[in-house]
Specification:
eight-stranded parallel β-barrel, TIM Barrel, alpha/beta
């Protein structure tokens, strides 16, 4: 079943809207045509304080399969013999992205370009192709022609040079599939370098916006599976170390990444860019639905609330947080506990470097598989 977002009745300020008090913006990790055509997106902006949207091929595939709202447009596009399945998908996606960007333009203007963005991803099949990523990102940017667009690029080894070039050129970028804190720090450094390069060229800094999409729940899913395997054969002390890390690593990892954020976006080097109008590259928490039924369904929202961050939330979790989320300034709580969790994980024999590398590879493959499936759906429509 294709997910939907429930439009709330007009009521007192809800937990989603309260997140802005803590400096966090809420984005929706979902898109489909009816959100824009029905006026539902406008209601979410007004009543929940929704400040942006993210998309990926898997989301578009679910939207296209889940209803008839794309059928007529696909049929019309198929009359153009020059368009293959990818060309048809791009036309569909670009139309939705443009309409979403237009709906969010009021947020973009009200926040002076801090929020109001919608993300469009380059083909995941280009994740290991720097030049291919650059060419497609530039083409999508020039085709969509919306200042509140972000081009989504995976944080792979090949993706990073493309990210730096795009930012230097003045293209807004959402760097996705970040799992390791070290890779996040590379991405933040790239952003600072790109701004410095623009400043040296006398180019405008305030026009550039970027987020670093740091994935959360997938880490706990991967770590907890390893804990299950290792604990069965471990001695009592090691088993205790393993269990002390269960379902805690993702949040600990994110909190320590936020600590890195504070270090990178402060001090004389950064202050010099701020003086020229630079804005920070915010951490965006992605993959924030709870995968385990044993965990609170809004865990990865409640525990990662802090200034200068974004949480992009899938529909079910979005509705759940509106219903019973408890906002608080949680992101800088328990930093020492977070360090202890990571130390215990290493002491118990689980390599975070190995886990995050595998998750990046898996993420690239999952997105690529979804893209291929999407093209198959479009071809068969």
């Amino acid at each position: 079943m294709t997910p939907t977002v429930t439009t709330p009745p007009v009521a007192a300020e809800n937990p989603l809207k309260q997140l802005a008090r803590f400096g966090q913006s809420i984005w929706l990790d979902f898109i489909r045509r009816s959100l824009m055509t029905s006026g539902e997106l406008h209601k979410l902006i007004e009543q929940d304080g929704l400040a942006g949207m993210t998309s990926n091929p898997a989301i578009f595939e679910k939207a296209i399969v889940g209803g008839e709202e794309y059928a007529d447009f696909i049929a019309e596009l198929r009359k153009d013999a020059a368009l293959d399945a990818k060309g048809i998908y791009e036309r569909l996606a670009i139309r939705d992205i443009q309409d979403a960007a237009d709906a969010l333009k009021s947020v973009y203007l009200a926040t002076n370009g801090r929020d109001g963005y919608v993300s469009l991803e380059v083909s995941p099949l280009l994740a290991n192709d720097t030049n291919g990523t650059l060419q497609e990102a530039r083409r999508l940017w020039s085709t969509v022609q919306r200042p509140n667009l972000m081009i989504k690029v995976p944080g792979t080894t090949a993706g990073l040079p493309a990210v730096e070039a795009l930012l230097t050129e003045g293209i807004n970028v959402n760097i996705t599939l970040l799992f390791a804190r070290e890779r996040y720090e590379e991405v933040a450094e790239i952003y600072v370098r790109a701004l410095e390069a623009r400043a040296q060229q006398g180019l405008h800094l305030p026009a550039i916006a970027s987020v670093a999409s740091f994935f959360v729940s997938r880490i706990d899913t991967a770590i907890d599976a390893r804990i299950d395997t290792l604990a069965a054969a471990a001695d009592a002390p090691t088993r205790a170390l393993l269990e002390s890390c269960r379902s805690k690593v993702a949040i600990a990892n994110a909190k320590l990444a936020y600590e890195s954020y504070h270090r990178i976006f402060s001090g004389p080097r950064w202050d010099a860019l701020v003086a020229k109008g630079a804005r920070v590259q915010r951490l965006l928490w992605a993959s924030t639905s709870t995968k385990s039924p044993k965990l609170r369904d809004v865990l990865y929202v409640e525990e990662l609330i802090g200034k200068d961050t974004v949480n992009t939330i899938p529909p079910a979790t979005y509705d759940a947080f509106r219903d019973h989320g408890v906002p608080r300034a949680s992101l800088e709580e328990g930093l020492e506990d977070a360090r202890t969790v990571m130390q215990n994980l290493a002491a118990a024999g689980i390599s975070m470097d190995q886990v995050t590398a595998e998750l990046l590879d898996q993420g690239v493959k999952l997105f690529a598989d979804a893209f291929v499936k999407l093209l198959g759906v479009v071809h068969a429509a």
